[in-house]
Amino acid sequence: MSHQSDPYQNALVQLDHVAAVLRPLYAESAGQLKKFETAIKRLKTPDRMLKTQLKIQLDSGKFRKFLAFRAQHNAARGPYKGGIRFHPNVTEAEVKALSTWMTWKCAVTGIPYGGAKGGIVVDPKLLSLTELERLSRAYAAWLAPWIGPWVDVPAPDVNTTGQIMAWMVDEYQKAQRAKLEQGQTAFEVNPLATFTGKPLGLGGSEGREEATGLAGVFTLIKLAEKLSQTDHKKISVAIQGFGNVGYWFAYHSAKAGFKVAAVSDSKGGIYEPKGLDPEQVLAAKKTTGSVGQTGLGKVITNAELLALPVTVLVPAALENVITTETAPLIRAKAVLEMANGPTTPEADEILATRKIEVIPDVLANAGGVTTSYFEWVQNLQGYAWPKTEVISKLKVLMDQSFDQMWQIKTTQKLPGRLATYATAVKRVVDAMLLRGNI
Ligand code: NAD
Fold first, then answer.
1. By CB count within 10 A, which of 69, 90, 267, 367 is most buried?
2. DSSP-assigned beta bridge partners for residue 240
């Protein structure tokens, strides 16, 4: 695996860059500096890396094994938190990288969690619904001893849904009940608080489904102000990925008056400089099967989308799409990272040299985990908030995180990513130092 395409190596390179920025803050004594270096070293390996082969019966009666992972990166600031991805390209390196980024993301918005991530190497489109349920349940049963409301709180990610969380929380509760029957304590708190991203009918939160995309648009509005362009219709966006994040980002961008010039999915995309109607694209995609076949704009490839003459480029699919090959071709003024890890460190340097503004993933897409946090709080309180309350609390935290990033970026003359990561890593390191076990 080349350096650029190994997301974990990328996460470690980013951490080294951040450590170089933070080091002077801990240099007042040799002892303090030593503790800082120990904390950084510890942050380079997840606290726990769980992996297994899950064996399930297919509808044909045959058995098949699937490789599954859970990385618990760091819990200095609170329970581990992170999604579960079902994808054929899931690797241990990817899961470790994503768990590291979760630690930073939770710290950026100040929510009291550490980072985790899970995944199964599977193409869920090749499974029947019953096979998908069996695999999801097998994963939750395997993970049950390692998770819980105050231990590790999983959530959906690529190709995992509220329904999958519902099966998983049910399986987790079965494991808890079995413990109860053996005379062990169980259900000290609402077990529904073990998973977030659940359906509304099973302890989910109002607003969670659209939260990541919507919160990304709160960030886009702030970015527009910084680009000195408050007339939203003069700002065009090209969005790669039209799943949960990409669709809701497109929907709320259009609603806020921005011009959605291009969208794509794994099969390709469309470009319409006058602006697309995301609801119409979604409706057409449901009949044609892919965005590229909707006939609502000029057909383009995913590579062409990255190089479009738009104001803001929004990667909202998978990681490693902005590389040394694609970064020089980008014509957007800014990149708003809605996907996790879409830019390699080498490409980041190219964007910085080219003065292309980058709003990093851990800030831009933090709306998902923030609303997951609200869901967890509601479950623990046993009290469901109305959607308006969820959205207004979300906006406060996103705007505050953006302003903090921008202040550090401008006062310390740092690129957006470094400014964001510096804030996040400092909060985690300080929590580790406060615990006094370094
Ligand atoms: P999703 O499965 O709903 O959608 C993924 C989209 O990406 C689909 O439209 C798919 O067709 C497209 N895609 C897949 N491969 C592609 C390729 N090679 N080129 C172009 N498009 C491709 O997933 P999602 O929940 O929207 O997540 C998207 C990204 O956002 C991921 O990086 C995820 O980790 C991140 N993220 C998601 C959330 C959330 O709340 N769902 C929160 C934070 C970050």
1. 367
2. 264, 315
Counting ligand 1 atoms within 8 A of each CB, the residue from 158, 291, 401 with the most, and so the one to mutate, is 158
Number of structural domains, the chain?
2
pLDDT digits (tens, 9 = 90+) for 50-74: 999 999 999 999 999 999 999 999 9
Single out the residue in 149, 168, 202 at which a domain terminates: 202
Strands 334-336 and 357-359: parallel
| Residue 90 belongs to domain spanning | 47-202
Catalytic residue numbers, as ranges = 117
Ligand 1 in reach of 290 Cβ (< 6 A): no
| pTM of the predicted structure, to 2 decimals | 0.91
Strand order across the 114-121 sheet: 48-57, 63-74, 114-121, 80-87, 152-156
Residue 173 located in a structural domain: yes
368 lines ligand 1 (CB under 6 A): yes
Choosing from 208, 247, 318 the residue with most ligand 1 atoms within 8 A of its CB, the one to mutate for a pocket test is 318
Kindly report, residue by residue over 60-119, the tens digit of the pLDDT. 999 999 999 999 999 999 999 999 999 999 999 999 999 999 999 999 999 999 999 999
| Contact (CB, 8 A) for 312 and 235 | yes
Helices (H), 319-415: 345-353, 361-364, 367-381, 387-411
